Amino acid sequence: MNRKGITLPEMLMVLSFISFLLGVSASLLQSLDANLKADQELHLLLSEINYFRYQALEENLSYRLSFNTNTLKIEKKINGNFILLKKIQFSNRTRISSNANPVFSALGFICPACTITYSRNKRYYILTLSSTGRIQYKKAG
C-alpha cells in the first residue's frame, strides 16, 4: 500500500506537542518580562541617584532624596529651603524604602549614610549610600 500524507492521529500528536511548547515558552516569557521590568526600574533608580549626586557637585547645591512606598522624590535646596524638583512613580508592584532621607552635599558627601531597599516580583536589592558618596547595590536573598 502506497501512503501519501499523514494520518489524523499523527497530526493531532504534532499539534498537541506544538501547543505544549507554546504554553511553556509563554510562561517563561512572562517571568522573563517581569524580571526585565524589575531590572529596568532598579537601573532607573540607580541612574537618578547618581545623576543628582553629580548635579549637587556641579551646581554646588544640596539635593535630598525621599522615598515613599513606590515613589522617589528629589528636592533641591534653594535659599535654605528644599523645593520639589522631580517625582518618579514606579509601578505598583515595586516597593522602595530607606532608613533615612539622604542629602547630597555640594562637596560630594551623602549625609546621613543610608540603606535603600528595592523589591519587585520577589527580587530584592539593597542599595548602600556611604557618607563618602559611594553608591553600591547587591542582590539580597
Distance between the termini: 64 Å
Low-confidence stretches: none
What is the CATH domain class? Alpha Beta
Mean pLDDT: 89
* Assembly annotation: single chain
Total strand count, please? 9
Strand order of the largest sheet: 3-2-1-5-6
Q: How many distinct domains?
A: 1
Number of helices: 1
Shape: rod-shaped
- Main sheet: strands, sense, barrel: 5 strands, antiparallel
Order of helices and strands: HEEEEEEEEE
- What structural class do helix, strand and pairing data support? alpha+beta
CATH fold category name: minor pseudopilin epsh fold
In CATH, the homologous superfamily goes by the name: minor pseudopilin epsh domain
CA radius of gyration is: 24 Å
Percent of residues in β-strands:
35-45%
What's the CATH architecture? 3-Layer(bab) Sandwich
Question: How does this model look, in words?
Answer:
The chain is of the alpha+beta class and 141 residues long. It has one domain (42-140): minor pseudopilin epsh fold, CATH 3.55.40.10. Helix content is 37%, strand content 36%. The chain has one helix and nine strands. The chain has one helix spanning 8-59, and strands at 63-68, 71-78, 81-89, 95-98, 103-104, 110-111, 114-120, 123-129, 135-140. It has a five-stranded antiparallel β-sheet with strand order 3-2-1-5-6. Strand 2 (71-78) and strand 3 (81-89) form a beta hairpin. The longest helix is centred in the first third of the chain and has 52 residues, at 8-59. The chain is rod-shaped and about 90 Å long. The model has no long low-confidence stretch (mean pLDDT 89).
